[in-house]
Design goal:
- The chain has 144 residues and is of the alpha+beta class.
- It contains two helices and five strands.
- Strands 3-2-1-4-5 form a five-stranded antiparallel β-sheet, with helices on one face.
- Strand 4 and strand 5 form a beta hairpin.
- The longest helix has 31 residues.
- The protein starts with a helix and ends in a 5-residue tail after the last helix.
Length: 144
């Protein structure tokens, strides 16, 4: 029993950890050579369904318009990939956008960093707990 729980928690930990780690690595790479500019949220809904199923596929994927110092207008789509409560973005809201100076299309909202870090730490904690349960089962010779 403990091994099954450990396996399920291990899979959950990897499912949380992998996307968060990818997002944090991307954000770290952008922050190395980043500029900051204000952005305006223009839309918060994105219909991802098809025909009558469109109502089931609506998601909050805010579109943020920002302008680089060179005058290039860019659009950033914020796609959160977690099951925890979403950050609220309202149309017309001003947010800080961090972008790569060499490639301004590589950008993220500054408010997304703490959420990605939280997901990374949560995934790491769940994975470590799963490993702890597995090792405890082996130490006490619990049956599979």
């Amino acid at each position: 029993m403990i091994y099954g729980i450990s396996l399920v928690l291990g899979i959950l930990g990897v499912v949380l950890l992998y996307p968060a780690a990818r997002k944090l690595l991307f954000m770290r790479d952008v922050r190395r050579n980043s500029g900051s500019t204000p952005g305006t949220v223009s839309s918060t809904k994105s219909a991802t369904g098809w025909l009558w199923a469109a109502a089931f596929g609506n998601q909050d994927r805010p579109l943020v318009h920002y302008v680089t110092p060179r005058g290039t207008e860019m659009v950033l789509e914020i796609n959160s990939s977690n099951f925890l409560p979403q950050r609220n973005y309202e149309p017309g809201q001003m947010i800080e956008v961090l972008y790569d100076k060499e490639s301004p299309g590589r950008a993220f909202a500054a408010r997304e960093w703490p959420a990605a870090l939280r997901d990374f730490l949560l995934g790491t904690g769940v994975l470590l707990f799963a490993i702890f349960l597995w090792v405890a089962g082996r130490i006490y010779n619990l049956p599979f």
